[in-house]
From TrEMBL:
Name of the featured protein: Matrix Gla protein
Keyword Phosphoprotein: yes
InterPro entries: BGLAP-like_C, GLA-like_dom_SF, GLA_domain, MGP
Family: Belongs to the osteocalcin/matrix Gla protein family.
UniProt organism field: Lamprotornis superbus
Localization per Swiss-Prot or TrEMBL: Secreted
Length: 79
């Protein structure tokens, strides 16, 4: 197969990998892992609610913010 040209837009597998350098791919993977670790508070609350079936059912009717507040938001800490 020939190199890319307007008449032949396809590349072979070896040439296709030349567009993305290895360090760029590793940097992208690292950034994705960092984003997964530092989730937004709302996303963390939603996941917590999704893991608790009654909260999830409440969320279908009233929304995830209300469901989280209903099941997890009103707890008071005791010493």
């Amino acid at each position: 197969m020939r190199a890319w040209s307007p008449m032949n837009p396809f590349l072979n597998r070896r040439r296709a990998n030349d567009f993305i350098q290895a360090d760029t791919r590793l940097r992208a993977i690292t950034q994705e892992r960092i984003r997964e670790r530092s989730k937004a508070a709302q996303e963390h609350q939603r996941e917590l609610c999704e893991d608790y079936y009654p909260c999830e059912m409440y969320a279908f009717r009233h929304g995830y913010p209300a469901a989280y507040k209903h099941y997890f938001g009103g707890r008071r800490r005791t010493k």
